[in-house]
Write a structure and sequence with these properties.
Residues 19-108 form the Flagellar hook-associated protein 2 N-terminal domain. InterPro entries: FliD, FliD_C, FliD_N. One of its GO terms (biological process) is bacterial-type flagellum-dependent cell motility. This is Flagellar hook-associated protein 2. It is found in: Secreted; Bacterial flagellum. By secondary structure, the protein is α+β, with helices and mostly antiparallel strands. It folds into five domains: 1-73 and 493-547 and 584-660; 75-105 and 446-490, no CATH class; 109-193 and 435-442; 196-321, no CATH class; 329-427, no CATH class. The protein is built from 13 helices and 36 strands. Strands 1-30-3-26-27 form a five-stranded antiparallel β-sheet, with no helix packed on it. Strands 11, 12, 15, 16 and 17 form a five-stranded antiparallel β-sheet that branches. Strands 7-8-4-25 form a four-stranded antiparallel β-sheet. β11 and β12 (220-225) form a beta hairpin. It is flat, with a radius of gyration of 48 Å. The two termini are 57 Å apart. 28% of the residues are buried. Mean pLDDT is 91; it is low at 4-8.
């Protein structure tokens, strides 16, 4: 760095700055530049050490894998036959497994018989409700007059959070679009039950000692004597008693000639009698939406021997569902003012004039009375008041049409609003269910198969919980009297591949170390770590282990691992595979570890790759490992060199700035002296001239 920009210090002195700059440059060359070269050499060492550490880390991964027991526990699964796919996990016992698939799990798929010209076609011109039960929950899908097919499908999906999906399919024909209602998940518990569904909670455990159970379904009644028809005992669980009661009901249906109609409906699927989704209670379904009623009389249960009998409802908190259990039309608030105008129900006029009872509930009751008093609605429509609101139901299962008289639609709406009603046709859930003509085209069911002769049932075709480590995918039903054989065997292909990676990564590291340690006598060029004993010892430590024999006299040469003349490794894969297959357990002991027993004391003897891993860990793992300490020392050295360089440069700069200031002062002094001398000379010259 030059200490001045001018060529001379002063006009009078003719002193040059070059002298200072030359002196300063010489000091920088002798004091700063050597430090810079040391910093550059240090940075090169750090870069090369980082590269070496990366290579050694990759090699250590091979050491760890080849010393890890899990590497030798890999398994493969082959399948003889059709209908099953298998995947074997680590450590699964080597064996043959016989599987016979009797039934695949599948989801419930139902087709609505109504057909439409497009997805946007009107699904229904009536207001109604689609009711169904799925996996423990009853759903009521509100269908408003004028909704499109797509909107109804989406309403089903949204209401169930996707558990049941409304899907529009193009099946063909002049009206090609149909609504499919299907479950998302497979399994018998995911069946969709349309119509009326009555489900109990968990039944009590213990012995049923008395009382009767009566179920009305499908228009017939089944009577069960709980003490004599149901086989229960002390110690029974809820599951036991639910199965026992179901068995008694089925036996009654099978043996009672008067129940033939129910038997036929059970076979057709119109009626379902079974266990609920938990298996601890019962479920009854009438797919046509008919009434289901349960009546339990004097039911008793004894839980423990010697205990007293207690009353029980068998888990039936709710005892009735069906056509009469859900109201068809419920009004909004009825006006408390005087009513006027005429509403129509199924075309029959109901005159509201004169109704003025001072409250909404009072007016609603008066309207209900007028409806019930209309002769032509008798036996067809009923009206009542619930919670102050007008409720209208169909008695014959047909639709109920609500309207009003008036000069225009505005006047008609005003009349209906006064009693909280809306114009339109309202179809009963049961009646509309018949119009929908729903057909089950795929039954929800569990997968059923045998595993070495043991009966297994699951709700999915992907099964991974029969035995730990084995995953099965059931794809087809097995032919009768034939079994699929799943063979579990060793999978040692990964071991040979890992050994190849070890050889490759060792050679990469070896060549790098040779580069770092080299010295060319002709060119006198040396590697950055030439002469470093820590780096030089790496190859020696590894080679002593690689060439060693274990207690049985085995070494890596036996497994096809050799040294080339240049110090790198090579692998004969064919020899490796042959030696490993000859005695896998002995090979694993050599690679990983074995147990030596001397005088009754067991000692774990490290295998070759365990030794290599431990040696590598001492070199690169942890802050106190050999190369990490070297890395730290280089970082510290760099810091010290940077500080020395900065201090040296600052010292030189400061010293020469001081010298420059002094020279500048000298220049000013010389200039002043020259000026004074010139003034005296001028005076002398002036005196001489005057004489």
């Amino acid at each position: 760095m030059a200490v001045g920009q001018m060529g001379v210090l002063g006009i009078a002195s003719n002193l040059s700055w070059d002298t200072l700059n030359q002196l300063k440059d010489n000091e920088i060359k002798n004091q700063v530049n050597p430090i810079t070269k040391k910093i550059e050499a240090n940075m090169e060492k750090q870069t090369e050490l980082t590269s070496l550490l990366t290579m050694m880390t990759s090699l250590n991964t091979n050491f760890k894998n080849l010393s890890d027991f899990s590497t030798y526990l890999k398994r493969s699964a082959s399948v003889e036959g059709n209908g099953v796919k298998a995947t074997a996990g680590e450590g699964l016992a080597i064996q043959d497994i016989k599987i016979n698939v009797k039934q695949l799990a599948q989801n419930d798929v139902n087709q609505v018989g109504l057909k439409f010209a497009s997805r946007d076609s009107v699904f229904s011109s009536e207001n109604t409700t689609l009711s169904f039960y799925h996996n423990g929950t009853n759903y009521d899908i509100e269908i408003k007059a004028g909704m499109s097919v797509s909107e109804v499908g989406q309403a089903i999906t949204d209401k169930t959070n996707g558990a049941v999906m409304g899907i529009i399919m193009k099946t063909g024909g002049d009206e090609p679009y149909q609504l499919m209602i299907q479950g998302k998940d497979s399994g018998a518990q995911n069946k969709i039950y349309f119509g009326s569904t009555l489900e109990s909670a968990a039944m009590p455990g213990g012995q049923l000692t008395g009382g009767t159970f009566e179920i009305e379904i499908g228009g017939q009644t089944i009577n069960i004597d709980l003490a004599n028809d149901v086989e229960t005992k002390i110690g029974n669980t809820a599951e036991n008693n639910a199965k026992a009661l179901l068995k008694a009901i089925n036996e009654k249906i099978e043996n009672d000639p008067s129940l033939t109609d129910i038997k036929d409906k059970l076979k057709s699927g119109e009626i379902t009698i079974g266990l609920n989704s938990t298996g601890k209670g019962l479920l009854f379904n009438d797919s046509k939406g008919g009434e289901i009623n349960v009546n339990i009389t004097d039911a008793k249960v004894k839980v423990v021997e010697g205990g007293s009998e207690v009353d029980t409802d068998l888990g039936f908190v709710k005892t009735s569902v069906g056509a009469s259990s859900t109201d068809l039309i419920t009004s909004s608030a009825v006006s408390s003012s005087a009513l006027s105008g005429i509403i129509t129900i199924n075309g029959e006029k109901i005159d509201l004039s004169g109704i003025n009872n001072g409250s909404g509930a009072g007016n609603a009751q008066a309207v209900a009375d007028k409806i019930n008093a209309t002769a032509n609605l008798n036996g067809k429509v009923s009206a009542e008041v619930k919670n102050g609101k007008l409720v209208i139901n169909s008695l014959d299962g047909n639709s109920v049409r609500i309207g009003a008289e008036g000069a225009n639609s505005e006047e008609q709406t005003k009349v209906l609003n006064s009693v909280g009603l809306q114009m339109g046709s309202y179809a009963t859930s049961q009646g509309f269910l018949e119009k929908m003509d729903i057909t089950n085209i795929q039954k929800a069911q569990n997968a059923q198969f045998t595993y070495n002769g043991i009966e297994i049932e699951r709700d999915k075709n992907s099964v991974d919980d029969v035995v730990s480590g084995l995953s099965l995918e059931l794809t087809a039903i097995t032919e009768a009297n034939k079994e699929v054989v799943v063979r579990i065997s060793r999978d040692d292909s990964g071991i040979a591949e890992e050994m190849e990676k070890f050889v490759e990564n060792y050679n990469t590291m070896y060549n790098k170390i040779q580069e770092l340690m080299r010295y060319d006598e002709d060119t006198e060029v040396a590697g950055v770590f030439n002469g470093n004993s820590d780096i030089r010892q790496i190859i020696r430590q590894f080679n002593s282990i690689i060439t060693s024999n274990d207690i049985n006299g085995d070494n890596l040469v036996k497994f096809g691992i050799y040294f080339n003349d240049d110090g790198t490794l090579k692998m004969d894969k064919e020899k490796f595979n042959s030696a490993f297959k000859e005695d896998p357990d002995k090979a694993v002991a050599f690679f990983r570890s074995t147990t030596s027993v001397s005088r009754g004391v067991s000692t774990e003897v490290d295998g070759v790759f365990t030794k290599l891993r431990n040696t590598m860990d001492k070199l690169i793992t942890g802050s106190n490992s050999t190369l990490k300490l070297l890395e730290t020392s280089l970082v510290d050295e760099q810091k010290t060199l940077n500080e020395d360089k900065t201090k040296t440069q600052e010292s030189i700069d400061s010293r020469y700035e001081t010298m420059a200031s002094r020279w500048s002062a000298y220049d000013q002094l010389i200039a002043k002296t020259q000026q004074q001398s010139l003034a005296v000379q001028n005076m002398i010259n002036s005196l001489n001239s005057s004489n």
